[in-house]
Amino acid sequence: MFDGRELREAQRLIDEWRSVIEERAGLARALSIRLARLSETVRSPDGLVAVTVSAGGDLIALDLAEGVRQRPAAVTAREIVATLRAARTAMIASVTAATAATVGADSATGRAIIETYAARLLPDGRGRG
Prior knowledge:
Blueprint: H1 4-37, E1 39-43, E2 49-54, E3 59-64, H2 73-102, H3 108-121
Antiparallel strand pairs: 1-2, 2-3
C-alpha cells in the first residue's frame, strides 16, 4: 500500500499544514487583541465637537467646547453626527491598518474583517473608499 517514503512525505505535509494553521491562528489572535484596543478620536472642523469611538464604533466620549453655546442646538447636533461618522470612518482605516499588519488586508480573512467592520460602522456604505 504505502512504503516508508510515502508515509514520511505524508507526515511532512501534515506537519507543514499544522505549522501554517498554528501561524494563522497566532496572527488571528494578535489581530483580535489589536482590534479590541483600538479607539479613534476626531474633532469637528470648527474644533467645537470631539468624539471618541471604540473599535465597535460605539461613542465612548463626547467633548463639547463652550463655543457650542453660541449656536443653535440643531447645528451642534448635526456636527456631533458628522463628527461621529468621521470617527467611525477613521476606525475603519485603523482596522484596515491593523489587519494589513497581521493577517494581510488582501487575504480572504483580512477582506472579510474589513468588510464586516465597514458594514457595521457605516451601514449605508458612505465613507468607505
